[in-house]
Model the fold of this input.
Amino acid sequence: MNIRKTVLAYSGGLDTSVAIKWLKDTYGCEVIACYADLGQKEDIKAIEKKAMSTGASKAYVVDLREEFVKDYVFPMLRANAVYEGAYLLGTSIARPLIAKIQVEIAKKEKADAVSHGATGKGNDQVRFELTYYALKPDIKVIAPWREWEFDSRESLINYAKKYGIPVPVTKKKPYSTDVNIFHTSYEGGILEDPWAEPPENLFTLTVSPEKAVSRAQYVEIGFRNGDPVSVAGKNLSPAELLKKLNTVAGQHGIGRLDMVENRFVGMKSRGIYETPGGTILQIAHRAVESITLDRDLMHLRDSLMPKYSELVYNGFWFSPERQALQCLIDETQKGVTGTARLKLYKGNCIVAGRKAPKSLYSAELATFEAEDVYDQKDAEGFIKLNALRLKIRKLKK
Done:
């Protein structure tokens, strides 16, 4: 494959730091580093300097925090997306945006290829490349992990040491991390034994529930048409809102997950996740939905959640089926406007109240006390009609 110029999804970590030199040596091509700022809280100038000193001809550092939360995280939260009953898809949802920016830079720089540092065993390679091909079908893709001679992170560390490439991973602490404003994930190395409890010093966004503050805290989150817009009555931008809730929830040890999941490529993988703000946002969202969303409409949307979550996990963000599902989901969210009050305490997030200007909840109908709105005798015919097929089935037997 003849490559003149490639745009590399650059993180400054082990894999992509080594990839710059490897790409230049292997393909003799120019390498443009693309660093997507999704809220990693890293030294942007140091990242850019490192990319250039490692051999990149250019280094793009793109602030995507608001776009990431508004156009990727929030649409997913409107769907209440959860993969395999637990994972809030923090890594999965970041890859399509990073890949989209790579393609845009490739067009601008007239590059003929894009590259990423995902391994040949994982999901990220699929997520990156499905996006590349969806947005620029003629693009060439270089996936170093599927080509180079290195067979482990230890061999990458040795290579980096040989050529003086600084990397944040050591042989003593070989697990890898992925960070964005929505979550932090940890996998590999000492975490590959599913029986071994992760060490407490691994976590960065949350304190342990045992060491969390001993007093409960209440927080009110306001929603407009399915999207969170305020905390404690103060309107915030999407990224600022999520950042604030990360801090609040993290102080109470909320949002930790230890999970063995099924990768798209077929194997099982153990991952440790921290999603503090996202965890309480989903709980708050469902609380507001409970009084604003029609029963059958909610049940229809919920029936689509597993498929929607699977599409996001597998990398089909730009697929026509995900976009069609999003249109339906967003239609259900019109009117999901209100406020949820949550009680945070030592790893728990408890709904303490919910209210909405156009609530469908009626105390007059729901009460067990005397009322004249609902005629309880009506239930008899309702039950008999629903029992008819059951009675017939039994009689025929």
User: Anything to note?
Assistant: The longest helix spans residues 295-314. The chain has a mean pLDDT of 94.
